[in-house]
Amino acid sequence: MDDILDSNRKLLLECAAAFGTPLYVYDANKILAQYKRLTDAFSGVKFRVHYACKANTNLNILRLLKNAGCELDTVSIQEVQLGLHAGFKPENIMYTPNGVNIEEIKEAVQIGVNINIDSISILEQFGNIYGDRFPVCIRINPHVVAGGHSKIQTGHIDSKFGISYQQMRLLNRIIDQYHIKVQGIHMHNGSDIKEIDSFMEAFDVLLKVASEFKDLKYIDFGGGFKVPYKEGDSEVNVEELGAQVSKKFNAFCHEYGRELELWCEPGKFLISECGFLLMKVNVIKHTVSTVFASVDSGLNHMIRPMMYSAYHRIENISNPKGIQRVYSVVGNICETDTFGSDRKINEIREGDILALRNAGAYGYSMSSNYNSRFRPAEVLIRDGKAHLIRKREEMEDLLRNQVEISL
Predict the structure, then answer these.
(1) Are 352 and 281 in contact (CB under 8 A)?
(2) Distance CA 61, CA 65 (A)
(3) Which of 161, 160, 207, 157 is nearest to 184 (CA)?
(4) Under-70 pLDDT residues of the chain
(5) Residues 285 and 291 sit within 8 Å (Cβ to Cβ)
(6) d(CA 123, CA 118)
(7) 91 alpha carbon, distance to own chain's centre
(8) What pLDDT digit, counting tens, does each position of 221-241 carry?
């Protein structure tokens, strides 16, 4: 893990003072560095990166990546519309929904984005409506277990995602019956995958399926690259992954008879490490067994620790040289609401600012108004300057869509 916090510590404290807490802060330079690292790792193939924007849909982050040459992966029609608003062209947007009504897919077709279909039922409905008039991508389930937690594993046999590679006979019958044009084959096995062997096992399945389709333009091997969450933590070696995947892909293209494009769709890899959730300590509470540091945020702002048992490093940026003590950092939500248990952290005092790392991805995008609390503001740091990119919510935001009636 690099020294991104150390290099931003003073500015983070200034952001907390200027914009208040809780506060999301993102480092634009880190996002761009991650994008360059990934594209460099796959420089030996025709490579297109589609940012999985469910990780963070702030328009400024979308535009930052678009201007760097990145394209967009979306999972809802609303994300498609946000992408268009950010300036992405329809042909640079991949739309990969799951379990949506055919009406939403028809809306995406009208917009002109790349359509990725992951169920036999929807594919048959699509064929009935469009026949050979609109090309599609097919999402395959390779039956490979991979990912850091059962809730973020999406490529195993019991997953709701994708069409099983064992259903190829049925898949081909539907494609032939409706003359569906298949331009891409896709998979996504989950998140926090560090084992290159898991990627390669699934990629072998993907290529085997792809060999049955003669008019492909691209093959999309998804994302899910693991990033480090703590000092000494493991991560996927994207340089080695790029070398292995590129070699196998180039050999496939040679056998296929023409050069295809290789696509992928990282989310967390691009923006997780860029982000910090800044929280002010409200109360230091001693019990018979634990010292709690209670902060002005909670699972309503960052649900990953409670939902996925995710580890996020927490540091006291107000007292970086204080003696380390053991704390459990907890939120102010009326639930069991723990950011980290029994953590060694530099001495925490009431009023200190804590920085929760790896908050760029799946923090604000999964936030809520639980307990009727406001969602935080967001700030983007670019070349040492802080820019407010989302205002903190106010009471009017909680009331805006409520309809009061006479009772």
Answers:
(1) yes
(2) 6
(3) 207
(4) 1-2, 145-159, 190-194
(5) yes
(6) 8
(7) 21
(8) 998 888 888 888 878 899 999
CB 355 within 8 A of CB 278: yes
Can you tell me the distance from the alpha carbon of 74 to that of 90, in angstroms, rounded to the nearest whole number?
11
DSSP code of residue 69: T
pLDDT tens digit sequence for 178-190: 999 999 999 977 5
Q: Hey, what are 324's tokens?
A: 């380390």
Q: Does an H or E element contain 246, and which? A: helix 238-256
Specify whether 334 is catalytic: yes
Domain boundaries, the chain: 42-270, 275-399
d(CA 333, CA 370): 8
Q: Choose, from 53, 137, 253, 334, the residue flagged as catalytic.
A: 334
The first and second tokens of residue 112, run together, are: 């002109």
Encoded tokens for 203? 């990629």
- Count of other CB atoms within 10 angstroms of residue 261: 16
* 42-270: CATH architecture: Alpha-Beta Barrel (3.20)
CATH domain 275-399 topology: Lyase, Ornithine Decarboxylase; Chain A, domain 1 (2.40.37)
Measured in residues, the chain has a length of 407
**CA–CA–CA angle 257, 260, 262 (5° rounding):** 145
